[in-house]
Structure prediction request, 92 residues.
Amino acid sequence: MTPELTLAVVVIGGLMVGGVLLMLALGYRSVPQGHAMIVSGPGAPPKVTFSGALVMPMFHRAELLDVSVKQLRIDAAARLVHALRGDPGAYR
Prediction:
């Protein structure tokens, strides 16, 4: 093999490896705390991750889901008092 051909093979191989590494770096999506990411693709069941995953926009669809703890306050005592008094607005 001539030196020019060897150099061309090395340069082309380096560009291909660099392109693959760049694709991997740009395609990785991390998930913020309190969220989950659902990644779905063609022919595969959806995957759920809490840290991050490789998402290729042409092949995958990624959705974020909020899984943080929520508080819901229900004032059952006031509702019971209204119901016992016969207030029609008690069940709204």
About this structure: Residues 1-27 form one domain. The first helix runs from residue 3 to 27. Helices lie at 3-27, 76-85. The chain has a mean pLDDT of 86.
